[in-house]
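Q: Joint fold for the lines below.
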Amino acid sequence: MDHVRFGRTGLKVSRLCLGTMTFGYQCDEETSFSIMDAASEAGIDFIDTADMYPLGAPSELYGRTEEILGKWLAGKRDQYLIATKCFFPTGKKAWEGGNSRQNIMRSIDLSLKRLGTDHIDLYQVHSWDANTRIDETLTALEDLVKSGKVRYVGCSNFLAYQLARSIGRAEVLGLTGFESVQPRYNMLFRDIERELLPLCEDDNIAVIPYNPLAGGFLTGKHLRGNPTEGSRFTLGFAAGRYQARYWHEHMFDTVDQLREIANETGVSLATLAVQWVLANKTVTSPIIGASRPEQLADAVIATHSPMSPDIKKRIDELTHDYRFVDDAR
Ligand SMILES: NC(=O)c1ccc[n+]([C@@H]2O[C@H](COP(=O)([O-])OP(=O)(O)OC[C@H]3O[C@@H](n4cnc5c(N)ncnc54)[C@H](OP(=O)(O)O)[C@@H]3O)[C@@H](O)[C@H]2O)c1
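A: Joint structure:
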């Protein structure tokens, strides 16, 4: 597994990042461990999580994913780079969510405890917080870096203007600021190509996109009609969100056309989807997800079989309309 420079930092991360949001709800602990073992064997040593995972679960389970990851990391913490996030509410109190100094200071300590570690390698705010001045957020994050609890900070789900404002305020305040962004990005959701990616390229901000397989939709395994039981598309509270994002006739039509290109090039559709994300020069490491260990193989193959420029161009043309979407989240 290749390692690449993390934006403008001196850090090197594996070309794939492992996502964990299936751990503790869709996957039990044993399966979660086997997914992490498989990722590690493939050379992936960069792992992303969040304080509010597992995905789709009732609120009593918030934090369970970090606990499972912490248990797996015991005795080998120094072998992996760990990224986590805060923002979404994880408690009943009004201040137990958002990017305020209060919630950031509270959330980091809870994450450190669950993960069984004394530091987080990449601490990210999970979303823009319209109720908190970005100066307050950036200053609190800087304090975490200075205290040694956090090595680098990043953001997720920011629009380009929100990132641009954050970069500007960090410069004015003399703070390190965000080293990375974590946006949604795949062949069916290309909105970030218009403004966010050019900004990241200009400022050398690391890009670690989530949903490269559109939550499994871009594996081509789903058939029109009712969503497949046991998959992301029927998963608890997340089912509606994922159906709204991808379960559409025109997207099934696109998948059929992409399947033909995959067959022509001799790779699975899942491999093609990851190859395409990796082929974007501004992308650092896509975050791949799995509900079973054997699912990782398709993404791993993509890291050592780059997409040809001709195929990239054909797919870019075929999916051009997905650059223009109403839903930027
Ligand atoms: N910042 C954010 O707001 C945000 C949002 C979403 C995700 N993330 C991060 O990004 C990570 C990855 O996101 P994601 O899980 O949506 O990524 P993804 O790679 O698009 O989807 C992964 C899902 O696709 C299916 N799948 C994967 N490989 C497959 C294969 N070879 N064959 C068949 N099905 C396969 C599995 O779902 P089924 O088995 O259920 O079909 C798997 O859980 C998350 O774990 C999390 O760390 C962040």
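Q: Anything notable?
A: The chain has a mean pLDDT of 97. The pocket of NAP is lined by residues 19-22, 48, 126, 156-157, 182, 210-216, 219, 221, 231-232, 270, 287-291, 295, 298 (CB under 6 Å).
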